[in-house]
Structure formats: structure tokens, C-alpha cells
Amino acid sequence: MRVKRVSLKNVNEIEESSVNLKLLDSLLDKYKNKKGNLIPILQGAQNIYGYLPKEAFIKISEVTGLKLTEMYGVATFYTQFRLHPVGKHIVKVCHGTACHVQNATAISEAIEDALEVKDGETTPDRLFTLESVACLGCCSLAPVMMIGDNTFGKLTGSQAVKILKEIKIKETN
Amino acid sequence: MEKTKVLIGLASCGIAAGANKVYDKITALKISEKLDIEIKKTGCLGMCFREPLIEIIDQTGSYLYGDVNEEKAVEIFDKHIIQNEPIKDYLVRSDLFESKDDIFWKGQIKIALRNCGVIDPENISEYEKLGGYQAIKKIVGEKISSEQVIQTVLDSGIRGRGGGGFPTGLKWRFALNSKSDIKYIICNADEGDPGAFMDRSVLEGDPHAVIEGLIIGAYAIGANEGVIYCRAEYPLAIKRLNIAIEQSRKKGYLGKDVFGLKGFNFDLHVKEGAGAFVCGEETALMASIEGERGMPRKRPPFPAVSGLWRKPTNINNVETFANIPYIILNGSDSFSKYGTEKSKGTKVFALTGKINHGGLIEVPMGISIHDIIFKLGGGITGGKKFKAVQLGGPSGGCIPEYLAETIVDYDSVNATGAIMGSGGMVVMDETTCMADMARFFLDFTCKESCGKCTFCRVGTKRMLEILTRITQGNGKTGDIEKLEELAYQIKENTLCGLGQTAPNPVLTTIKYFRNEYEAHINDKKCPAKNCKQLLTYSVNPEKCTGCTVCAKNCPSNAIDGERKSIHFIRQDACIKCGACFSKCKFDAIVLS
Fold this sequence. Notes:
A: alpha+beta; four-stranded mixed beta sheet; 8 helices; 47% helix; elongated; B: Glutaredoxin; Rossmann fold; Ubiquitin-like (UB roll); five-stranded mixed beta sheet
């Protein structure tokens, strides 16, 4: 689902100035002259930084000769790519058909209330980013949400909030 | 004497239900008890509603246990493995005992899912033990020509399992007849339909079957390179595919002179999607592999003539490929003996929504929807009334209760206005609002529209606006007609499958549930009591205890009342958010 990700502006600026572009070197060596390399390069860059920093775009363009407009076009077309930094944990709440029928909206609303963020936003402590996604493919366990590689099924709003609280406690200790 | 085997289902759904903990527990018990048993990680058996599942195969037969948690695992280990006493109460399937869940297995014929949940998907020798890679070896060994392979596939009657329903053999023949030094074969694993997970289960449970299918396809059409385009939301499937490809390469099943056949060079890699539903459309998928925005292009030229990198290309779906080795090995009759006249074989369906037995089933074509839902599916959750079933996801349509006797084959389903699709079946009960369902699907297609064709880009947006206002109680007379007009315009004036099918959910819900739309528009009522804006909240004086919780939580201060006295909702101030309803502990808030 197309999510408009709202960035935290001031944090963003600090972040972008400290992007270590050297991390891109091995990735660019690998894909430099291969056809169809644009998406794998962007995926690789996002794996490194967690999002696609502006500086990375410029460097990729310089090294590979890919046009900036083309890269921006692709990066904004696919939902996977992020142009702004996100929280440490991305909370993906499934809004596929099966989850919708089983009231996934209640899960999203409960999390929105608890974290005081809206869909696509990041908490001020940069711990969580809330996202609605189309389908996680665990429909028989609907409604589900995914945090990192962990999928949680047959949720209620309060259970979802409890899981987030547990993560928060772990992180602050 | 064979070792006792313990099979633990570790597909995504099993893991989500806690199967990893069960696996760790059993492994720890095996070590502490020093028992000589074999513990195996397998894929999905399809019985998702009883996950986590463990299967014990011992001297006496096989025993499948459902809803296993750590405590139950200890109990099963103690009683069954150590004392040889199966626990009947936990059994969901067994050779020796009856179980109340037996109905779920009755009528299932597993061809595409033949190895799912049976073998360890990360171990090539397990696949080979059950006849894996024998089909391609047979082709090479008996020098079966590519034309003969295609004829067998054609005779089997298999049609594209991704939803299109185009005869696979015919597709292969077109690709074979295109002359070129380079040809590609692609496996479409970009399963984007919300509510469908057939392909994920096959990839996670039996990746080698898909790879063998691709090798056979490559042999038949003369392709040198293969790509599996898998959506990034399936990390486990991607991981297992990469393991499987590496294993086949080591064995000489991929690479140069495959299976010792001089000049048969074929290699394969996985390409991760980047999250765009439209990339399930074959021309958009190819654009995405080429590193571009996934936008469809005009056909002709068809991919068989000019596809990936302008070379002849053949694209099939995961399930189609998984069927191919079975068909080649056992002959076309082994497949075509199932099904109806024009739709042969079996089909995998993902049962979800308001159904008791949510999961994955493989049934022969020609079974009725009623049988799927009420026999295998175990009926509707909570004993509610069955209302409709959505087939084909956002591209499909709904089939209402009174057409439940419709049989499942491409043509019968198409006749209702729905489509077979890739196999997602979302069951809806009396509490599901059909107008809201249509709005939900339109919201999805609108967001996923690539933006190339105006009718899809703007048309779906306009339809969504109308549907949104209908479900919010602001519908106007003439809205239904406007929706219909837009729907036909979009269907006729768009390039790809996404646009052409996007209006289907709206058209079918209007066709079968027009009265619900009219109730929303004319009476400002939602018959399913689902659309919040159309409901009235009031306090049941007999149940209200005057605890003030509702008043405190009301964001618009629409609830009056003193502590310990009956509260009252002022309708003019109520914004129908439902906060009071969800917060009241005494069920004193009534919806009407």
C-alpha cells in the first residue's frame, strides 16, 4: 500500500550529513556494469542505510552513470524504498483482504493511539515506524502484524500494543 | 528398523503461530533423553487453523498433532515418543484414529502440494527420494523431444494457475516457435493478491519442484536463462529458493550441459521484487527485472516474441511450474483425469476470512464452492450466516450465497462475474458490508495503479471517492449508475489486467447486493452494521451502571450523565467514532 512517510525534519538533516558513502563501494563494484542493476543497487543501498539518503543517490549516479531522474522515478514507484530514515523497528500492520475482514483497522488504531503516531510516521524516540502493508501472506492467522522477521497472528488491539510495550521495555533496559 | 520421525511445519504461518519454540523444545528433549529419532523441518501442510503442527511417523503409522505449544510438545514427547501411546485428543489426522478434522482432508488431491509439509525443503536429497528431478532425467534419458514435452503438457490440459487460465502448453509452443539465440523463462512469484498465499507455501515447502518445472520449461522452449521474480515480502521463500538453486547447481542440474546433455545450458536466479502489485502483470514484471518502473506495455508483441530484453520470453506462475514435473513423470492422464471438461487437474486455494478451517487446500476442479466452504472449510466462524465469497482478490468478484452451488472451474466462475484468479478465497459472513468490501478493493487498486492509463489512474480514484461517500452516508441518487458507467469505461480503456479487472469487485457487489448499496444511499443505513458513520450509538438503560468511562472517552463530549446514573448520547454531537462502544465494559452501548 502506498504510504506517505512523514519525516522528522531536524533529525533528518543531521542524519544526512553523516552518511558514510564508502559503504556503497563494494555494492557498486558488484553491479556497476550489469544491465538491470538499478533496483538491486537501490535495494542494497537501503539495506546499508535503512533508507535512501540523497548523497547515496548522487554517488550511485556518478559511479554508474544512471540518471538521477530515473533513479528517483524508480525509488518513488516501489513501496519498498524509503527516502527518509525510519525507526529501529518497523511495525507492519497487514491490511490484506483477510485481515481487513477480521478488523485490521482496530489494530492500526490501537497502535496509533498507543504510540501517538499516524500511519507512516516514526515515534520521536526513533524506536518505531508504523506502516500499513498490503498482504503478508499469513491470511489464516488474520489479523497479523510483522515486526522485523517476526510475524504475530490472531491479534487484538490490546495484544498488539502489549507486544510493542515489551519491545520498548527491552530496548530501554 | 526405521527411526521414528518428527516433522515440524516451519513455513511462515507455522512460525508465526510459534512453531520455532516447539521445534526448539523437541530438539532439547531429544538431546536430554538421548533418543535416536529424526527431527525434520518441513513446509506447510495447509492446515493453518491448527498451527503449529507436528507429525510423528513411527512403526505403526503417521500421527499429526495440531495446536501444539511447548507444554503440549512435552506431553506428546513423553506419552507418544517415549511410552508409545499416541494422545488421541490432540490428533488432527492419523492413519489409525478418527479425528473431527478429518473432513478437512476429505476430497483433497495433492499434486502441486505433493511434497509440502512432507519433505525438508532445504534438503535436495529428500525431494529426490520422492521422485524429484526424475521427470527431467526421464526427458534427457529417453531423448524426449521438446515438441513431445509440450504435447504432454498440452494433453494434460493444464491452464495458467496465476489466474489467466491460458493453456500452458500453447504458451510454451509460441515460445518454442520464436527463433532466437537467447530465450528467457520466468517464474512469476509476485503473489500480490491480498488474501492469497498459495505460491508462498509452495516456494517455502517445495522449492525444488518449481525449479524442476522451470528446467523442463527451459528444455521445452529452448531457454538459456531463468528468473524467479519473488516478492520481497516473502523473505523465507527467497531464502529457501536460493538454497535450493545452490544445491541444484552443485549437482549439475543448473549451469552448463545440464544433466549431462551437451549444449543444454540453463541457469537460474531469484530476483527480488520491490513492492508493486502491478508487477504481477507479465509485461510490468519484465520492466521491473530490467530495472525500470513496473509499468505494463502494449501487447502485441507478446512476450513469447519479444519479452525480457526484447528476447522471446515465457512466463508462468509458481503453481503451474510445480505441477509440470508430476505431469511429465506420470503422463498427461494422471493430471487430466481430474477436473472438468475445460478445466483439468487440481487447483490450490487459500481459504481465509470468516471460515473455521482457514488454510490451504488442493482440490480437483469441478468441486462446488458450497463443498469447499462447508465441508473442507468447516463452515462459517461463530455459526454466523454465510453471505458471499470473494474469488480472485481485487481483480475478482464476489459470489453470493445463493450461487454457492457454482462449481469451481475457469468458465463457471467467469460466468458469475468473478474470476478464478490465483486461488484466494475470502469468505464473508452477514457482518461484512459489501459496499465497504468494494471500497476496500478499490482503495487497493487505486493505490497500486501504476498511473500509465488515465482511465485506471483517474477512474479508480473517482470510483473510490463515490464508494467512500456511500459508506460514509453521503451517497447520492445516481451514484450506483455512475459507478457502473465508470467501471465499464475503465474496463475498456486500460492496457493491462490491473485496470481491466479493477472494477470487478464493484460490479459484482452491485450485481448481487444492489439492495445494500441502496440502503446506504437512500435510507442511510448499513444492513451489515459495519459502516460506522451510518450507525447510531445509544445507551441501553438496563445495562448502564453509570461508570462514566464512555463519557470520559468520548472525543466530542457527546455523552451526558452523572456518576452512578444512566448516561445519554446526544446524537447531534456524536461523531460515530465508536470509542464508547469499544470502551464500555458492560455492553451497555447499543448499535442500531
